[in-house]
Amino acid sequence: MQVAEERARERDLTNLTTRQADANNLPFPDQTFDLITSRFGVMFLGEDALREACRVLRPSSRACFLAWGTFEQPFWSSTMGVVHKRVGGTLVSADQDPFKYSQPGGLSSALRRAGFERVEEETRAVPWTWPGTAEEVWEQARAVATPFLPMFERVPPEKWDEINSEVYRAISKYTVGDDIKFGAVVVLASRSRP
Length: 194
Prior knowledge:
four-stranded mixed β-sheet, 35% helix
């Protein structure tokens, strides 16, 4: 929230406020907002939170959600996939599954159960370029890897150097010039205006 506030000030935006709240019990009246959006966060919300999002959305407004597609894509297979091949077992915990809505119709069904109407969903391959090194990609992936922590804990400490090297080699297959061009498969779901 602090970053959002700072960026708003940098752009002289004065109509932005931030507020921390429980997604399962939003502190806003019914039909408050014209837009609700979640980019790579909806997979970690339960249906109570989706119902709350629906409750605070005005009837003629818009909701947009973006979730990861399947695990079998370049970024995931060259990072977490390498670790998983080495240690096996469960990839992620069920309550923190980034791929929760990767199957066609999964996200739109959850939104409909939560009360959203006129929901459209599509799975799309999109360009995704990392402007940096394999080491930077892996550092970032590990920094936001909460769903994968139980898997990481199964890695014997003496194996990390070997795994890191294998991850760097796997990522480097996607290097083009100074960039890493993974591409990504994502699931988009939205409720449009009538």
